[in-house]
Amino acid sequence: MWINNQSSLDDFILLGFSDLSHLDPQLDSPMYFFVSNLSFLDLCYTTSTVPQMLVNLRGPEKTISYGGCVAQLYIFLALGSTECILLAIMAFDRYAAICKPLHYPVIMNHRRCIHMAAGTWISGFANSLVQSTLTVVAPRCGQRVLDHFFCEVPALLKLACVDIRVNEMELNVLGALLLLVPLTLILGTYVFIAQAVMRICSAESRWKAFNTCASHLLVVSLFYFTAISMYVQPPSSYSHDRGKTMALFYGIVTPTLNPFVYTLRNKDVKAALRRSLTKEFWIKTR
């Protein structure tokens, strides 16, 4: 017991940003609650693939264990599925803010936001469980060479040595539900938003309303259209070079750009950052 206590006394404590981790009052809104969920999701998204990719780039050994491949497949697919639904919820949030401004605090109350976010994560991981299982149970007859930089559904199914038409049909149905349905809801939501914005008399107010949606539309465009090109198609028509390029965009490039898209185009976030840095500067210099 004394040795354990002595060991703990010798450890260092890293405070990090724990003293600055509270929310800025002006960012305490449903929109930024969902943006924080998206930021955390994107951080995990890139972490699930990039470390292994960097290890494989280091030398001639380019292997991943079976368990590691299954884990990577499940986590990456779960996070991608979650992002599909989360982007649709963020579109609904913008619809409520612009089209129903007086009812917005009631529609997007704190409890409902938490329930929506929790439902998004649960749905994403449940969908991944189904798709990952359908993928890994397909016999590969000893084929081990995966022409990709991480374990992904189309690339793994390409190794199957049996008729996978049933798998393809099931995966295409799930892919369509998870990609096309949320995208259709997003586009429909923005039709109503556009109609509401056009009824605003002030040009300045119209531009402000448009600007709050532009970042989200850019993220949706970058993520959905590259993911659809991969998952709403038969794996038998999968092209390795095209597949790797598309996966690079929606798996690494887009999650990396998302924080910059939401911060560099957002006056509230930039103002909160300036206040935080200014406050820290004055505290340190006093």
UniProtKB/TrEMBL annotation:
Q: Name one GO cellular component term.
A: plasma membrane
Which InterPro entries does the entry link to?
GPCR_Rhodpsn, GPCR_Rhodpsn_7TM, Olfact_rcpt
Key word Hydrolase present: no
List residues traversing the bilayer.
73-92, 113-130, 173-197, 209-232, 247-265
What is the membrane topology listed in the Swiss-Prot or TrEMBL record? Multi-pass membrane protein
Query: Where does the G-protein coupled receptors family 1 profile domain lie?
Result: 9-262
Q: Which residues form the signal peptide?
A: none
PROSITE patterns named in the record: G_PROTEIN_RECEP_F1_1, G_PROTEIN_RECEP_F1_2
Subcellular localization is given as: Cell membrane
Instruction: Identify the PANTHER family for this entry.
Output: OLFACTORY RECEPTOR
UniProt protein name: Olfactory receptor
- From which source organism is this entry? Pan paniscus (Pygmy chimpanzee)
